[in-house]
Design brief:
The chain has 181 residues and is an alpha/beta fold. It has a single domain, classed as 3-Layer(aba) Sandwich (Leucine Aminopeptidase, subunit E, domain 1), CATH 3.40.220. It has helices at residues 39-48, 50-59, 95-113, 132-148, 163-175, and strands at residues 2-6, 9-15, 25-30, 67-71, 79-84, 117-120, 155-160. It has a seven-stranded mixed beta sheet with strand order 1-2-7-6-3-5-4, sandwiched between helices. Helix 3 (95-113) runs parallel beside helix 4 and helix 4 crosses helix 5. The protein is globular.
Length: 181
């Protein structure tokens, strides 16, 4: 585990199971059809039960770079924020901007709903093939830049599946300059 305070908020890194996190919202690395799938998406749908999929069907999808919110079903978290990151092609097809927008959209939804704590995976780095170091840099800087401003979010926990991913995030979080105001 690693923690870094940003203003009045805390950014944490842990290696573990995102579905077990006791937070206000879990962020799902979703596909644009909100159809469930493998990796984080499949685990969240399996652990959260059919209520999540029922809401996802009613929403009818979500474009890449955006996010939507549903119930958390039977998860410990009352909400799931489904963020759709880009499929990585070459890094020159708008992927960095789309990934940043996906995280920004999650943070905006959290602010709108009064969500104080959220567990976040490494979006797009599994089946979508985004290089972990590049994606982690975008994820961490986007969240930290948001928390540097006035925010009602008190805690953002990046939940990394593998030790390797955790180490990449840890090394980058140590390097990222920040100043609390």
């Amino acid at each position: 585990m690693m923690k870094k305070q940003i203003n009045t908020s805390m950014v944490e890194l842990i290696q573990g199971d995102i579905t077990a996190q006791k937070v206000d919202a879990i962020v799902n690395a979703a596909n644009s059809r909100l159809a469930g799938g493998g990796g984080v998406d499949g685990a969240i749908h399996r652990s959260g039960g059919p209520a999540i999929m029922e809401e996802c069907r009613r929403l009818g999808g979500c474009p890449t770079g955006r996010a939507v919110i549903t119930t958390g079903g039977t998860l410990p978290a009352p909400y799931v924020i489904h963020a759709v990151g880009p499929v990585y092609r070459n890094g020159d097809s708008g992927e960095p901007e789309l990934l940043k927008k996906a995280y920004q959209c999650c943070l905006a939804i959290a602010e709108e709903r009064g969500i104080k704590s959220m567990a976040v995976p490494s979006i797009s780095t599994g089946a979508y093939g985004y290089p972990i170091r590049d994606a982690a840099q975008i994820a961490l800087t986007t969240v930290i830049d948001h928390l540097k401003k006035e925010s009602t979010i008190e805690r953002v926990v990046f939940v990394l599946f593998s030790q390797h991913d955790f180490e990449v995030y840890r090394s980058l979080l140590e390097e990222i300059p920040y100043h609390s105001s």
